[in-house]
Write a structure and sequence with these properties.
Blueprint: H1 20-41, E1 50-52, E2 57-58, E3 64-65, E4 71-73, H2 79-94
Length: 95
């Protein structure tokens, strides 16, 4: 593909530090990292720990605003990992 045939780049929204959406994403990333460290310390490793946000919300045809929250996605795991996670939770709840 020649430079003339390339599609124009879509404009990117640059998050600002004071942007509430950025703060929510940073909060979710910190929570994900904290959970991963705690699980690792307990000998449990989930194959996927990710941060996800919903689609941007739209206010009309051309305007959109970022999602107001972010979620820590735990992904899927094997049965042995699920049992190990359950054991760690039970141990913590009993202590």
């Amino acid at each position: 593909m020649t430079p003339q045939q390339q599609k124009p780049a879509l404009p990117r929204r640059t998050p600002r530090a004071e942007d509430p959406a950025t703060a929510k994403i940073q909060e979710a990333v910190a929570a994900r990292d904290d959970l991963a460290a705690a699980l690792s310390g307990a000998g449990v490793q989930l194959p996927v720990l990710d941060v996800r946000t919903p689609w941007p919300e739209t206010d009309g045809e051309d305007s959109s605003r970022p999602a107001r929250y972010a979620l820590v996605h735990l992904g899927v795991c094997s049965a042995p990992v699920a049992h190990a996670l359950a054991a760690v939770i039970r141990k913590g709840a009993a202590g």
